[in-house]
Amino acid sequence: MTAPIAKFDPQLDLVLEREIDVPVELVWKAWTTPEHIRHWFVPKPWTITSCEIDLRPGGIFASTMRSPDGQEFANVGCYLEIVPLRRMVFTDTLLPGWRPSSKPFFTAVLELEPKGAGTRYVATAIHGEEASRKTHEEMGFQDGWGTVVSQMVEYIQAGHVKL
């Protein structure tokens, strides 16, 4: 049983919902294996140059994104909740070991549900203030996170993720 997530607040939150044609077990593995994340986690031609995962509450979730012109952007946070094959919650508000971040931006909730042979995929970005939500929206949340889901599905369907 999972704890309920806060009620969606359109002033603070963004959500992406999709039904995708890959099994939940492969989606989970794509999300929890650093070697897989490197291949789909940012819209191309951006790349992931490093990824670290310690899949437990308080464990690190970090990645470094590289822009097409070579600039790198490190993202470090920690997991708050892990429910295998169903939900993961991670944030940059807290760092690994529950240390507060000096620059919190958002908390992400990924919820997965088997849907036939596929998966109902819901990704919610929760922000602490309306300005952060607006910034995230203007950064291209819907297009960016949607592209990433499509890339992940293509990567899985190409046979790169195995159980």
UniProtKB/TrEMBL annotation:
- Start and end residues of each Activator of Hsp90 ATPase homologue 1/2-like C-terminal domain: 21-156
Q: In this entry, which stretches build a coiled coil? A: none
Specify the protein name: Polyketide cyclase
Name the family. Belongs to the AHA1 family.
Which species does the entry assign this protein to? Caulobacter mirabilis
